[in-house]
Design a protein that fits this description.
With about 200 residues, this protein is of the alpha/beta class. It has 8 helices and 4 strands.
């Protein structure tokens, strides 16, 4: 809700409301059990869904999920950073081809303006559920996750420090952890390696 022209954001108060909305969406689509893959905020929501409705999630892949907090290793507040500063935080090498492709705006002025508006709307939607960032209480629910879980993390993640990777693995029973070469945008930096890891895990 609130992204790509979708409506309904105004009816949701918190992450729990959002989790219920996705569970209701599965019902509306006639989908029973799903495999979920989520990155950062999407990873937090996927983990919440798997914890609150464990019967709905068959396999779970969390890529640098948001939701845990340590004062000595704070996650970067990506909601307030200017877009031009993001590559240095999100990518292992902000000068890489992957970073340049991600940062490049559309060719036309009209498309570029539309992309900027969508980016602002996306950040505003995310901010409603994660601001302030520290500790949304998900750590109290992670033990409820029953689905086989894979935690993926870029080994040079500056946005969501890699110290959280082991914390997620330890809090989810039986979870596997894989560190991939890259930063927070490891899915963009090593797409083939990341896709192979996800496909192999989900396909078991």
């Amino acid at each position: 809700p609130g992204v790509a022209g979708s409506a309904g954001l105004e009816t949701l108060e918190d992450v729990f409301d959002l989790t219920l909305a996705y569970e209701e969406l599965l019902d509306a689509l006639g989908i029973g059990t799903v495999s979920l893959v989520g990155h950062f905020f999407g990873g937090m929501v996927a983990a919440e869904l798997a914890a609150v409705f464990p019967e709905r999630v068959g396999r779970l892949v969390l890529v640098s999920p948001l939701g845990l907090w340590r004062d000595d290793a704070p996650s970067e507040d990506l909601l307030i950073l200017p877009r031009e500063d993001l590559p240095a935080v999100l990518f292992r090498d902000p000068a890489s081809e992957a970073a340049r492709r991600w940062a490049a705006g559309p060719a036309s002025e009209e498309e570029n303006l539309a992309a900027q508006i969508e980016s602002i709307q996306r950040r505003a939607a995310m901010a409603k559920f994660v601001w302030p960032i520290p500790d949304k209480g998900i750590k109290k629910r992670l033990h409820r996750i029953a689905a086989p879980t894979l935690v993926l993390w870029g080994d040079a993640d500056r946005a969501n420090p890699v110290v959280y990777a082991e914390a997620w693995q330890q809090r989810i029973k039986g979870a596997a952890l894989s560190l991939l070469p890259g930063g927070h945008m490891v899915l963009h930096e090593t797409p083939d390696v990341a896709a192979a890891a996800v496909a192999e895990f989900v396909g078991r």
